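Here is an idea for our session: we take a single protein and study its fold together. To get us started, please write out a protein record for me. Start from the sequence, derive the backbone structure tokens from it, and show both lines together. Go ahead whenever you are ready, and we will take it from there:
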Amino acid sequence: MKHVFLFCVLIFSLLAICNCKNDLSPGHVTQTEAGKEPVQKPEKPEVLIPEAVPPVIIPPEIITPETVPPEVLPPETIPPEEVTPEDGTQEGELEEGETETDEETPIIEITITEPQYTALLQINELRTEIPSVGKSAEFIEIKVVKGGSMEGLYLYSFFNNGQDSFIYIFPEIDVTAGEYITLHLRELESCSCWDELRDDLTISGGVDSCPTARDLWVSGNTKLLYKTDIVYIQDVNGKIMDAVIINEKPSASWNSNQARFAEIAERLFNAGMWQTDNGKIPTPLDAVNTSGIGNNSYKTVSRYEGRQNTHSAKDWFVSNALTPGLPNK
């Protein structure tokens, strides 16, 4: 019994000690502990668990800067063309009175003169023989195919004596289509050899002048056209406008100055101004045959008017009538 009693007392003492520790409060603090500042335990943060709400999906086309989180917005950039200078004008915008040029580069004004409309001329009739020197002149008649200015057009005729082939520069005259121009190749004695440069076509004298056509004169008294010859018109840029080759004695070679004749004939062929039937460079046999003229001053080398220009001997015939300034017969 004694042992049972002691065991119970021990159990009771242990239970008392445990209750004292659990019931400890500021009132039970000792004087030493009361002098100390009580230690406050940190409060646990209140954790709020939000309700599960489905995210709001905004279509891309209506997304605005307000609906996009700031961290995903791209940095704001200003295109170079939208940068506004300090003077308030936009780049590329000109101020009043300002021209669109670099201030450091001087302005060079270039005035371009429009080229004058050039007439299209065609050789129409040639007179190679005259009855007497000083009373009449050889001539080359020109027909205007397309109207315009004759300024800058040159006439060439090859001479049997090997002289320079240039003979005339046409003056600055506006001519009309269908007009006839007679270029007399020498001046006459005691005649009014006036160039008809304007609208009055009656001022020029001479046996072969025409009051309804334009008459022009080459100064001097030298023979410039022969029955064996090459005549062509060329513009200021070297382009050949029309040509004719005539030969008094058709043969396999030119009668004289053979190399020079062959050179000019080849040039006309390459320019498409004198053709052959076989497509080769023209020979003396491809020229207009003038052997029927002889010394007859009334016969001329004339073009078949109204036909297409084939740039060959087929376009020409020997006429028995002079028609300067008039249609060929």
